[in-house]
């Protein structure tokens, strides 16, 4: 099979690796519009479950990724001058540049051709399969936007993706109160003496602080002052082109058109606050490679891939929506004692939380944690009650954030 993959991110490179491992006779070329070694972003996160899947699909690249990752098993939340620390699942951080370098090296070793500074705006002729792994602004998807039924929904809050030389020893949340509202940061280490630091705030805080008018240097100085308590004198660093954005959730009515298929962010996006973007892109590649192996006919394979991944993404996309809403409604939770606020931060994926008073939810969650019967009831009742409450509030024109 001749495969042309457009986009040299984690999804496209890993798909090429998996297809070459399945059948070395596949003719696979990955086209990347940017020069080799250039990348946006800082570090990416993933969890132990992804590492298990990587080991099962390609042990060699999994070993390389694990070797170059940093680990943490704690989270810490700073609110004003108070802090709460929580032991949790083991997480990993790796530099995006390092991850791409490892995957590109593995792909080359298997015989994949990598073409950098090679922009592809329309499906190339002569390929059996064309993979659009060229991100949220996919040129290939845009060319057939009517068929794919692409929709984007803008989030409310503003955010910017930065780096810092402060190496966090845990996944760190820092919430700072200003005269114009709250502003907060997510920080995590990823190696090479750096950490990622994503800063987020409401539109009112964004304009009130003057971040909409500040140039890059002025904005960084202001943010360094606001988060001085966790940065310990270390600077914040912005890559060229870094800008304040609002997150855009992207969906498509269908993911394939003829021999063209969407992969990763070209097909779907999930809010960064759940730290799953890279994981979902790699899992897309695993699923597509598996479908191509199981089904001899390409239309059947692409349909099976889309059907399976849509089903697998339902819970993740729901969690991402509720996570984004939790931060958009931060004043509802921020004045709780830090350990309670942190506990509800960990529960932000719950569909029931927006409809239950936070103190009551905290008490119920603590009780459910002690009794298995209550845990089962919570898992069964939560989504059903949330749907009923959401339907009622919609009918009356209410919004959970007002409560």
Structure description:
α1 (10-22) links the parallel β1 (2-6) and β2. The strands form two sheets. Strands 3, 4, 5, 8, 9, 10, 11, 12 and 13 form a nine-stranded mixed beta sheet that branches. A six-stranded mixed beta sheet has the order 6-2-1-7-15-14. The model is unreliable at 397-403 (pLDDT under 50). It starts with a strand and ends in an 8-residue tail after the last helix. It is an alpha/beta fold and 403 residues long. The chain contains 14 helices and 15 strands.
Q: Helical content, roughly?
A: 40-55%
Q: Helices and strands: which structural class?
A: alpha/beta
Low-confidence stretches: 397-403
**N- and C-termini, Cα separation:** 56 Å
Order of helices and strands: EHEEHHEEHEEHHEEEEHHHEEEEHHHHH
**In this structure, how is the largest beta sheet organized?**
9 strands, mixed
Q: Quote the beta fraction.
A: 25-35%
Structural Rg: 22 Å
Tally of DSSP β-strands: 15
Shape category: globular
Question: What do the pLDDT scores average to?
Answer: 91
Number of helical segments?
A: 14
Give descriptors for this structure.
403 residues, single chain, alpha/beta, 43% helix, six-stranded mixed β-sheet, 14 helices
Write the layout of secondary structure elements.
Elements: E1 2-6, H1 10-22, E2 27-32, E3 43-47, H2 48-57, H3 59-67, E4 70-79, E5 82-95, H4 96-110, E6 113-116, E7 129-132, H5 139-143, H6 145-148, E8 151-164, E9 171-178, E10 181-191, E11 194-201, H7 203-208, H8 216-226, H9 228-231, E12 236-237, E13 245-251, E14 256-257, E15 260-262, H10 277-294, H11 298-328, H12 338-346, H13 358-370, H14 372-395
Parallel strand pairs: 1-2, 1-7, 2-6, 4-9, 7-15
Antiparallel strand pairs: 3-5, 4-5, 8-11, 8-12, 8-13, 9-10, 10-11, 14-15
């Amino acid at each position: 099979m001749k495969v042309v993959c457009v986009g040299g991110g984690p999804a496209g490179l890993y798909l090429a690796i998996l297809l070459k491992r399945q059948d070395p006779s596949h003719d696979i070329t990955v086209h990347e519009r940017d020069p080799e070694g250039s990348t946006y972003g800082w570090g990416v996160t993933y969890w132990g479950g992804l590492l298990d899947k990587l080991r099962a699909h390609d042990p060699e690249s999994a070993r390389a990724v694990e070797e170059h990752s940093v680990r943490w098993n704690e989270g810490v939340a700073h609110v004003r001058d108070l802090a709460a620390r929580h032991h949790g699942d083991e997480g990993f951080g790796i530099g995006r540049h390092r991850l791409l370098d490892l995957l590109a090296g593995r792909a080359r070793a298997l015989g994949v051709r990598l073409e950098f500074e090679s922009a592809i705006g329309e499906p190339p002729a002569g390929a059996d399969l064309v993979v659009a792994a060229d991100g949220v602004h996919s040129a290939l998807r845009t060319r057939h936007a009517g068929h794919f039924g692409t929709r984007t929904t803008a989030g409310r809050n503003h955010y910017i993706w930065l780096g810092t030389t402060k190496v966090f020893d845990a996944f760190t949340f820092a919430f700072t109160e200003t005269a114009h509202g709250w502003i907060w940061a997510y920080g995590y280490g990823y190696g090479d003496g750096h950490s990622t630091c994503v800063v987020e705030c409401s539109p009112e805080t964004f304009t009130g602080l003057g971040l909409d008018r500040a140039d890059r240097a002025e904005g960084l100085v202001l943010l360094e002052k606001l988060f001085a308590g966790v940065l310990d004198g270390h600077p914040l660093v912005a890559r060229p082109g870094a800008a304040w954005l609002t997150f855009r959730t992207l969906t498509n009515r269908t993911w394939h058109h003829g021999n063209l298929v969407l992969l990763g962010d070209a097909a779907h996006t999930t809010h960064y606050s759940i730290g799953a973007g890279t994981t979902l892109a790699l899992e897309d590649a695993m699923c597509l490679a598996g479908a191509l192996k199981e089904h001899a006919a390409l239309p059947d394979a692409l349909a099976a891939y889309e059907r399976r991944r849509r089903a697998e993404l339902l819970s993740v996309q729901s969690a991402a929506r509720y996570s984004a809403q939790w931060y958009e409604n931060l004043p509802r939770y921020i004045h709780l004692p830090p350990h309670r606020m942190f506990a509800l931060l960990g529960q932000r994926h719950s569909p029931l939380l927006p409809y239950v008073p936070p103190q009551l939810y905290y008490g119920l969650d603590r009780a459910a944690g002690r009794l298995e019967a209550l845990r089962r009831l919570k898992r069964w009742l939560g989504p059903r009650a949330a749907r009923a409450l959401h339907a009622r509030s919609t009918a009356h024109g209410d919004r959970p954030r007002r409560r």
